[in-house]
Specification:
Structural class: alpha+beta
Number of helices: 3
Strand content: 15-25%
Strand order of the largest sheet: 1-2
Helix content: 40-55%
Number of domains: 1
Number of strands: 2
Largest sheet: 2 strands, parallel
Shape: globular
Length: 81
Amino acid sequence: MIKDTGEHVIPENMKITNELLIEHVARYPFASEYVYGLVLDFASGTGYGTHILAKKGKGCVDKVVGIDLDWKAVNYARGNY
């Protein structure tokens, strides 16, 4: 489990009405309309956005890779997505 310090968005720890969560989560379905091939998600954090891109990538996405410097966030993403 990753500690919620406010640095990363952890969807299951936030209320659905949280404006930060709504803003962050809205970006990925929008972006998924425009991605194709190999998709690199830099500063992927907890991985929820990388997961959305992989699932909604319009069939044109070959692979989605999330990259983050925080190894705890990477481990969280691996375990949850």
